[in-house]
Specification:
By secondary structure, the chain is of the alpha/beta class. It has helices at 39-46, 93-96, 154-157, 163-175, 190-201, 214-222, 235-243, 257-265, 289-294, 309-321, 340-348; strands at residues 2-5, 14-17, 19-20, 27-36, 55-56, 61-68, 80-83, 118-120, 123-127, 137-141, 145-147, 182-186, 206-211, 227-230, 247-252, 267-275, 298-301, 331-335, 354-358. Strands 4, 6, 7, 10, 11, 18 and 19 form a 7-stranded mixed β-sheet that branches. A 6-stranded parallel β-sheet has the order 14-13-12-15-16-17, sandwiched between helices. Helix 4 (163-175) crosses helix 5. It is globular and about 60 Å long. The chain binds adenosine-5-diphosphoribose and zinc ion (2 copies). This is Zn-dependent alcohol dehydrogenase. Its cofactor is Zn(2+).
Length: 359
């Protein structure tokens, strides 16, 4: 099969032919239909997140089941599915507590994967997030798969696997935003637009989108933003003015400590700062300690939307089919695997929300 391979940080991806070995008993082989370009993969490309190489990136995908291992129940060839990086064991304390996205005993192949299912002339190629979705096919653990309802288009469904899950989940499950709240969202990329949309679904009264890029602010209105504010210097004051004293919730969906601090400064008393964006490995968050206690601020994080993805993805797909979830404007363009480097250049330049590779 064809796959986009990253051989070292700060090098372009190369389209190469590789072999796929499996599925093993607990695994599923999937023909990829759509694969979204998320900023998280770029953290590996840029070297902000360390990783073994060579690697097939990509973690936001949809596809059709081709084959299932002997221990897989409830899935069969032909099933239309979305995959997610949150694979889980089902029996550790975190899974038993209902937080399988935080599983402490993930059924992963040993890392780095010397026995990866992706091979090239006998050499192992790593699978990013246990998926490796920038490829024509994937072999994934059975717990990485969620079935789609009838009628859900596969190219659109791809973005459910990260942008929609992470964005909406961080609002509804992570921060548990209450109806009537004032919510500010810093960073309106693929994930941030879904935080905006999640706040709308949660019944927020005011949703303020903040971004450096005016085009992203316009897009945010289509997802439910009631106000838009240009980011950077002066953004804190503008949000405090727009909210009449500060927001109840501030979501940082970029991954920059200075912006996380700005988000903190935008909160009113008893407000909540929610960290969603992935930072560099060595980044630290710094906020004024006196304001933290004086205003009784809560600071929390959300990992992949803080939800059991297998349960919520079909629900999100159904909301889309019922016209209640906005997904079409999220997909700026559909591209071929060969256009992936250009697609990432456009993401970093802020020209696109999501590019989806269609196979
Ligand atoms: N202030 C406001 N907005 C900013 C700033 C800033 N200082 N810097 C960047 N932005 C905006 C960009 O203009 C862009 O619209 O943040 C947005 C980031 O969006 P994307 O690059 O599309 O990233 P996305 O895929 O949404 O992921 C966001 O969440 O999952 C993580 O790893 C991911 O850290 C990344 C974050
Ligand atoms: Zn577990
Ligand atoms: Zn992602």
């Amino acid at each position: 099969m064809k796959a986009a391979i990253l051989r070292a940080a700060r090098e372009p991806l190369t389209i190469e032919t590789v072999e796929l070995d499996g599925p093993r008993p607990e695994e599923v082989r999937i023909r990829v239909a759509g694969s979204g370009l998320c900023h998280s993969d770029y953290h590996v490309m840029s070297g902000d997140l360390g990783s073994p190489f060579p690697i097939v990136l990509g973690h936001e995908a949809s596809g059709i089941v081709e084959a299932v291992g002997s221990d897989v129940r409830g899935l069969a060839p032909g099933d239309r599915v979305v995959t997610c990086t949150s694979i889980y064991c089902g029996h550790c304390g975190d899974c038993q507590d209902g937080h399988n996205h935080l599983c402490s005993d993930k059924p992963v192949r040993p890392q780095p994967q010397t026995n990866s299912p992706i091979r090239q002339n006998g050499e192992a190629i790593q699978q990013f997030c246990n998926l490796g979705a920038f490829a024509e096919e994937m072999i994934v653990h059975r717990s990485a798969v969620s079935k789609l309802p009838e009628g859900m288009p596969l190219d659109v469904a791809a973005v459910l696997g990260c942008a929609v899950l992470t964005g909406i989940g961080s609002v509804t499950a992570g921060a548990d935003v209450k109806p009537g709240s004032k919510v500010v969202v810093l960073g309106c990329g693929g994930v941030g637009l879904n935080v905006v949309q999640g706040a709308r679904l949660a019944g927020a009264a005011q949703i303020i989108a903040v971004d450096l890029n005016p085009a992203k602010l316009e897009l945010a209105r289509a997802f439910g933003a009631t106000d838009v504010v240009l980011g950077g210097e002066g953004a804190v004051e503008r949000v405090i003015e727009a909210t009449g004293g500060g927001a109840d919730y501030a979501f940082e969906v970029i991954g920059i400590p200075a912006v996380q601090r700005q988000a903190f400064m935008m909160l009113r008393k008893r407000g909540t700062l929610m960290i969603v964006g992935i930072t560099r490995m060595d980044a630290e968050l710094s906020v004024p300690a006196l304001a933290l206690l004086g205003k009784e601020i809560r600071i929390i994080g959300s990992n992949m939307g803080s939800v059991p993805f297998q349960r919520v993805i079909p629900t999100y797909a159904q909301l889309y089919l019922d016209g209640r979830l906005t997904l079409d404007p999220l997909i700026s363009q559909r591209i071929a695997l060969e256009q992936i480097n250009e697609g990432y250049e456009q993401l970093i330049a802020g020209e696109t929300a999501r590019s989806v590779i269609v196979f």
